[in-house]
Here is the input.
Amino acid sequence: MLKDHTYHLVSGDQAILQFQGVTFIRSERLILDNITWSLPKRGIGAILGPNGSGKSTLLRMAAGYVWPTRGHCFFNGRRLGTFPVSELRRQVATVEAATIVPLAPEMTTLDVVCSGLLGKLTVAYDDLSPQQYQQAAHTAELVGLQHHLRQAYDTLSLGEKMRAMLARGLVQSPQLLILDECTNGLDIPSRETYLATVNRICQLPDRPAILVVTHYPGELPPGTANIMLLTNRGSIQAMGGPETVMTTEHFSEAFQWPVVIRYVNGRYTSESQPSIWNVKA
Here is the structure.
């Protein structure tokens, strides 16, 4: 049940992404239940929730890979399904941990970033202009990889690969940048470096709208204003700004687990109630 309704939807002409009454059913199983939420143009938003809450399904809808059973999705005021999917995907860049895998091992870091300009997983069959290489090099510098341009991508650390994929998404100049659980598998220094990089990107005056999808409150960039917290039933527990959504009550209910939310040094943290350690498995 929606616990707090102080959030006001962004009007269609101001929203880059909008879900209206979206329900999704697969194999007679309810995955998403009547989701209505929006993200403004150049806004910073987040979708949080437990495994199985429907976060990935919403992202697939936003990119035109699946369609609602009921309701509608809109991108930049246009209903998905009324214009070519190829046009949508040129304007939406999704960065996720899984995409660090399928690139050719002989590619350099610069090649990987350049591949974002082509929408391909290789640059072997295309001639890029000096301007395109310069654009890719500048974007790599934004994520702190300017000293790794000629290094084989396959020899980068996991954290460096993730930042290379972030640059690959940014170089496309998308209107919407989706960051889907990008810290999976990163150690503490790599995770913090990645999060600091995202924070810098959020400060850019010409940045796209940014949508962060995560389980962890500590990964929200400063300035995140539009948050949706989902339950394991695919419904909305809470939505709005951080002061509304980021509470112990909401997270404990959404995760069906005793979660404590705190705000420390400008970031949210989450932990289990101490008593959980005394529960027998």
In short: Residues 1-8 have pLDDT under 50 and may be disordered.
